[in-house]
Predict the structure of Receptor L-domain domain-containing protein.
Amino acid sequence: MSAIKYILPVLAAGRLALAVSCNDTVTISSQSDADDYASCTTIRADVTLSESISGDISLSGIEQITGSLSCTGASNLTSLTAASLNTIGDKFTLNGLTTLSALTMADLTSVGSIDWEALPNLQTLSFTAGVSTADSVIITNTGLTTLDGISLETVGEFSITDNTALTTVNVNELKNATSLINFAGNDNSLEVDFPNLGTGTNMTFRNVSSVLVPSLTTLSGELGFWGNTFKKFSAPNLTTTGDLVFDDNPDLTNISMPVLTTVNGGFEIIVNDKLSVISFPDLETVTGAVDFSGEFDTVSLPSLKEVKGGFNVQSTGNFTCSAFKSLRAAGAIKGTYTCKANAADPTTSDGSSGTGSSSNTTSTSSASATSSGAAVANLVANVPAMGAAAVFGALMQFAL
Ligand SMILES: *[C@@H]1O[C@H](CO)[C@@H](O)[C@H](O)[C@H]1NC(C)=O
Ligand SMILES: *[C@@H]1O[C@H](CO)[C@@H](O)[C@H](O)[C@H]1NC(C)=O
Ligand SMILES: *[C@@H]1O[C@H](CO)[C@@H](O)[C@H](O)[C@H]1NC(C)=O
Ligand SMILES: *[C@@H]1O[C@H](CO)[C@@H](O)[C@H](O)[C@H]1NC(C)=O
Ligand SMILES: *[C@@H]1O[C@H](CO)[C@@H](O)[C@H](O)[C@H]1NC(C)=O
Ligand SMILES: *[C@@H]1O[C@H](CO)[C@@H](O)[C@H](O)[C@H]1NC(C)=O
Ligand SMILES: *[C@@H]1O[C@H](CO)[C@@H](O)[C@H](O)[C@H]1NC(C)=O
Ligand SMILES: *[C@@H]1O[C@H](CO)[C@@H](O)[C@H](O)[C@H]1NC(C)=O
Ligand SMILES: *[C@@H]1O[C@H](CO)[C@@H](O)[C@H](O)[C@H]1NC(C)=O
């Protein structure tokens, strides 16, 4: 009896001394591997869960991983719990975990970056504290229905694509987005809410049913909407943006941007068949081209002072061109000028159809470079959801 009493601690200690360094790269292939690291409050290295790991895995005891936490291809991993983990210093990568259905990290608040892909059975996150800091969050092709548990206060790139069950996203704490925010290919009923976002860089949305940005005042880059199902879009406090694009939003009836004064780039409103009124009461300056084409009956830009690029406004509707003709005559519209009301086949500046009902859809156009230089959105509209970076690259080329 006393023999057992002594032998057990010795064995345990021997195993610890042999197996564990909290400072070296860690590979975990089983629950017993994970248990070996329970005494490491901080792991100063990368932690990899191997492809062969399976079942329910718990990383207990670990509070911080200064490196990355990653798991790729472990199709038999059904749940992952790290009850006391609060920080992952580098990347948190999960890829191809096709049976993962629970991710439980109650204390996790800070992550270098989140990069999750192909987690079709992961429907919710059990992140009680909530991740408030991440340099980037990229989540694609998961079963998530909400992003509750990701309560970002700061983020760089935020790209949420092809999550076909995702219906609501509310990033309540985010005030300043420092890189691209992109939504595409998620559930068509997805509602995206950024109640407190004041400033951002680029924001692009495809296939969403609502976007709320009540506090947004300034974007240094592009604001773009393609193939969304919302009826209205409103940015009540937005004064300045880069390229501004509404392309092929079939239910859109109302765009409300009452204090928008400056578009630092191209301004494109095309193929939004139900949009009958285009009205931007405070818009003064467009540094690129204006390209509006569709079935609208009113174009009201009473404050417009300068369009540095071209001006192409064509509609099946009976709007009036006279104000623009005067601006053109006064030299305020610098590039090529076209204004056509009651047009049978309104076209965009690159010649593709401006309406969805026409036989010409907005398929590829060779984007003949005009001296006006800024009607970029047609290029963007035809690339797959994920290709934003490539598109921006292409645009740069186009610009050169
Ligand atoms: C692990 O790294 C920390 C910080 O660099 C250091 O203080 C500690 O002594 C290291 N431990 C071992 C066992 O090397
Ligand atoms: C998952 O389990 C199945 C059945 O045991 C096995 O054939 C397969 O190789 C496992 N997958 C991985 C990635 O280990
Ligand atoms: C947003 O964050 C960036 C980078 O941290 C900073 O340069 C910028 O001043 C911030 N903008 C506002 C309005 O806080
Ligand atoms: C934002 O969009 C512009 C083009 O409108 C592009 O030049 C820039 O690289 C984009 N930035 C990011 C962070 O996506
Ligand atoms: C919009 O701007 C006004 C005036 O600056 C401000 O009072 C109001 O709080 C802003 N609204 C939101 C939702 O941020
Ligand atoms: C998403 O929007 C694009 C247009 O940008 C459209 O081509 C595509 O069919 C839409 N996807 C779904 C699932 O509706
Ligand atoms: C569009 O919506 C805004 C804000 O809700 C409203 O003030 C405006 O009258 C609407 N415009 C049209 C043409 O319905
Ligand atoms: C267009 O509207 C003007 C008045 O704004 C009117 O005189 C003209 O007849 C209308 N044309 C068509 C084709 O409806
Ligand atoms: C369709 O596109 C072709 C080539 O771009 C153009 O010549 C033709 O006028 C367009 N027709 C319509 C109905 O937009």
Notes: The mean pLDDT is 87. The two ends are 83 Å apart (CA to CA). The pocket of 2-acetamido-2-deoxy-beta-D-glucopyranose (ligand 5) is lined by residues 214-215, 237 (CB under 6 Å).
